[in-house]
Structures are given as C-alpha cells and as structure tokens.
Specification:
- There is one protein chain.
- This protein is an all-alpha fold.
- It has a domain at about 20-50.
- It has 2 helices and no strands.
- It is elongated.
- It starts with a helix and ends in a 17-residue tail after the last helix.
- The relative contact order is 0.12.
C-alpha cells in the first residue's frame, strides 16, 4: 500500500463493510445457514452485492 490514495480508498471500503462482520451477525448467519435459527433477512442485508 505505497499509494496513499489507493490505501485510503481501500480502508474506507473496508470500514463501510465492517459492520457486516461483527461476531453477533456472523454467528446469526451461521446458525441460520445450519437451520438452527429462523431466517432473518436483516442478518444478510448488504452482505452480497447485486
């Protein structure tokens, strides 16, 4: 990351998505994927683009 502009842009992108990877949300998605917890769309919102 020798280019400050690129480093800043990538850092901002990472920070914007960081909220999607809290331990609570990751655990909820794992339990939902395993069928141990009812599906809750809020845990998946914004995770995949498109």
């Amino acid at each position: 990351m020798s280019n400050p502009t690129t480093a800043r842009r990538m850092g901002e992108a990472g920070r914007a998505r960081a909220r999607l990877f809290t331990w609570d949300l990751v655990a909820h998605r794992m339990l939902q994927a395993a069928g141990l917890e009812p599906r809750n769309g809020a845990a998946w919102d914004g995770l995949f683009s498109g």
